[in-house]
Amino acid sequence: MSKIILENISELPKGWIWVKIQDVTDVIRGGSPRPKGDPRYFGGTIPWIMIRDISKEKGKFLTKTKDTVTEEGAKKSRLLKKGSLILSNSGTVCVPKILKVDGCIHDGFLTFPDIPKNMNIDYAYYWFEKIRAKIRQENQQGVTQVNLNIAIVKDIDVPIPSLNEQKRIIDKIEELFSLVDSIEQILIQTKKQLKFHYQSILKFYFDSDYEILQLNDVCDLLSGRAFKKSEYSTKGVRLFQIANVSFGKIIWNDIAYLPYEYLKKYPELELKEGDVIMALNRPIINRQIKVGMLNPCDVPSILYQRVGKFILNDNINSKFLFYFLQFSMFIKQLESSLQGIDIPFINKSKLMSFSIPVPSLKEQKIIIQKIEEEFLLVHNTENSINLLLLKIPLIKNTILKQAFEGKLIPQDPNDEHPEILLQKIKQEKEKYEAKIKQEKQQLIQKQKASRKKKNVK
To answer: Where do transmembrane segments lie in this chain (predicted)?
Structure first.
């Protein structure tokens, strides 16, 4: 384990040394009150730290937990003070967090009681962040399970400079991380704004002075058939269900089949390339409409109940209709006309009475071309942003790599050498162990004296 981590770090700068975790701190495991859920131990006022809590909260600190324990539960666990460093050792392994609240850890966590006085706690946190992937890789047990134990963690190597240099390194890491986080937020906000830009494009082309008709003037709507489960087969023609129409696209995560002969039995339900499809049950989720247009890879397929296929006349282009159905004006019409509470739905008569702008077929083709050109620009911009967002963790890893190789900040020749710190830690440890040994001896002597007194009686 130690050797592997050493291979990922170039030669240390002058004044740095390698130490093991056990050289600078004890490693202690948490505890779990049992039985789980017992009201004597759970449901109190003391935060009970779970793996899901550290997975849910992004960043260095843990500020809240979902569950709590009682004072009796805390006695059977391990209660830590605010500012403690913890490390997950099962489940989602090697996730470090610094506590912003007092709380109890169960046996899926380790903690390091001596770090605050022997090592900068933020320095330790970022070291665990840097080596997390390597630790997970080297402690894989089976296909998916990864577990750590006290012995493994104690044996982990850490490159350390002086305490003063550790502090300067952390200041620089957090300065750079803050800059990276700011850039990440700008990218995320830009990506959100691009979603609105799609609607701006549609508004520009559809909110114009064209002839306004009703949908039933340019098309009809055919709903599918409620095929029974007993009719399904293990292979054949795909059944197009509500689950297969998403937000502007067709998806086949959930596939059911009917026998091929159903294509001849129900020819009116056969779907073809270019067909425009819409969900009639729960058609809108988070202001997005479940509508799609079939591609060559989506056919042949057969229409299922509560999915509608638009049957167009000669006055409208299928792509023009497809884009219009995603326009916010249409979505608002649809949203205000939905019926039902548990499963909102739209009936055919209401849907077909909705307004639609209908320019000439020639103008429709020009509009489609312009929409697709502008959509492509937005889509390419989104892809570029996504690629940049994927680089954020790589940038942070590079910063950590340089930090722990001593390349992030200049050194100060006046800093105390870490060997002196190690010597102090060793002396303190010897004093502590001698004190524990003395206390044990005194306890044994008291127990012997007590037994002797009982025997005399």
So the answer is: none
Q: How far apart are CA 137 and CA 152, in angstroms?
A: 13
* CA terminus-to-terminus distance, the chain: 59
Determine, yes or no, domain membership for 372: no
Let me know whether 162 and 262 are in one domain.
no
Kindly report the number of other CB atoms within 10 A of residue 298's CB atom.
21
Range of the domain at 398: 2-178+391-452
The answer to whether the CB of 187 falls within 8 A of the CB of 385 is yes
Task: Name residues whose C-beta falls within 8 Å of residue 395's C-beta, 6 or more positions apart in sequence.
Answer: 180
Same domain, 148 and 278: no
DSSP assignment string, 175-226: HHHHHHHHHHHHHHHHHHHHHHHHHHHHHHHHSSSPPEEEHHHHEEEEE-B-
Residue 285: closest CA among 333, 335, 243, 239: 335
pTM of the model: 0.79
Written as six digits, the tokens of 201 are: 């494009």
- Confirm if 155 and 22 have CB atoms less than 8 A apart: yes
pLDDT category at 432 given cuts 50, 70, 90 is confident
Look at residue 396 and give its three-state secondary structure: helix
3-state class of 307 per DSSP?
strand
The span from the CA of 416 to the CA of 217, in Å, is 85
CB within 8 A of 389, min separation 6: which ones? 184, 187, 188, 191
Residue 140 clears pLDDT 70, i.e. is over it = no
Predicted confidence at residue 1, as pLDDT, reads 46
Task: Describe the crossing of helices 121-138 and 361-404 by its angle, rounded to 10 degrees.
Answer: 110
What pLDDT digit, counting tens, does each position of 5-44 carry?
444 566 788 889 999 999 989 999 999 999 988 999 999 9
Confirm whether 154 is domain-assigned: yes
Q: Note whether 106 and 171 are same-domain residues.
A: yes
Residue 236 is inside which H or E element, if any? Answer: none
**Residue 2 reports pLDDT greater than 50:** no
- The answer to whether residue 381 is domain-embedded is no
Q: What is the pLDDT of residue 192?
A: 92
Q: What percent of the chain has pLDDT over 70?
A: 95
Same domain, 159 and 301: no
The string over 155-180, giving b where at least 16 C-beta atoms fall within 10 Å of a residue's C-beta and e elsewhere, is ebbbbbbbbebbebbbeebeebbeeb
Q: What's the confidence (pLDDT) of residue 429? A: 74
Supply the pLDDT for residue 360.
96
CATH code at 237?
A: 3.90.220.20
Question: How far apart, in whole angstroms, are the C-alpha atoms of residue 282 and residue 415?
Answer: 66
Residue 346 has pLDDT above 50, yes or no: yes
Domains in the chain: how many in total?
A: 2
What is the structure's pLDDT at 6? 47
